[in-house]
Write the structure tokens for this entry.
Amino acid sequence: MQVFFDKTLENEFAKIYKKFKAIELMDDEAYKADLEFLLKKLVIFDPYETVCEYKDFNVAAIDGSGADGLISLNDIGIHLLTAAFAADKTSFNQGTTKQIDLTPPICSHPEGVLRLILLREDKGEEVWKEFEGFIEYNYGEELKDIVFRIIKNIVTDEFKKQHPNKTVPKMNSEGTIRMVANQLKFKLYKGAFPDYSTWMVSPRPNSPRGWFEQFREVLEYALAHSLINSDVHFKYLFLDGSMNMLLSPGQNIPRLASNYLLKDINEKAKAKDTCVIAVSKTTTFPFIYRLADDLEKKLGSEKKWFFRVPSPARDNIVLNILKDRPHIPPSYGVTYLFHFSSEVPILRIDLDEKWWREKIFDKDKKKEKENEIQMFKEIDWIARDVRYIGYFFGLAFAHHTTIVKFSDRDVVADQLIDYFAENGENPKMFIHPRKRLGLR
């Protein structure tokens, strides 16, 4: 359909703008109160010089993509998944970075990994078996073992919180974990840990797109797991997205399989002294566009600043504009908003709470602020590539590598159809009717 700028379209513009302003005005007072609070908490910092003397470190970043519905036949769909990484060493005294020669075992090519998955609609048990097998093959561990370990860690943390001076009891089985959880009045799901389909939230069996996203996220975390387990030590590991954990009301353990992999990555990264940082380019943080505009007017366009978003659990404070967004900050995570350059909007990062408590938090708030500033000065320095000023270059590189162009997608689909044909299948059956009819 060709779009004409006529009265009809202008009326649509007017309706949308009216709704937009109504939302903005509805929460205007709440935003202004929060802005006053945030201005008191905001930290402006002076960056490191591009060329300076500072201890070098390694940094990596991961992003994922793919193509759902690569080819299909009736209720069978074959999907393409990709995940890519960039690994670099800083060179502060030269003002640049150097690529690290590293290819983790999971990788199917030097910069990442490619996988094909087959999903069939209305076959829930089959999807779960495929999903479990996919996790074990790529992550290197069975999901049931990861779930057991993470739930045990969560209950252990809760025990230490409630009884800081007591020895943590042994929890070598699901039964003993549940017993300790009951004593702590810490709710666990009734279904057995390995009975995922009874208590984990998952897409419907006839929702290939939903499952595609689950598989893609697993592949990204599997690549992160492989990097963490490599011989190279990374000070920072960047992931694209947030650290949101899906929790049901009144429950304290995650409901998504990918959340368990994410927590496991953070546990293992902390043991390796690696900070996992989830970066959101676009965030559901409300009024962030007004915040960017107001702060730029007040501070100037090139000031570098950050602030930590308060949470009820840590600060007994909830921002007015976040009262309907309990997932910000995420469970088991700490959120910051920051600004490095006028070229890029305000960005959000999430850190693992346990890492944050160990490396950033301090009872002496002056020391805590110093820890925060050091981290932000370091990550600001690695967001200074001229092509992506204000954004982390590693994530940009990983993104460009992992994206599957439509032309490449068609080539892979055609090669896959040819492979089927070589094995005796009728190739026409795997070509989408639209394509066979000449429609795009």
Observations:
- The chain has 15 helices and ten strands.
- Residues 7-41 form one domain.
- The CA atoms of residues 138 and 180 lie 32 Å apart.
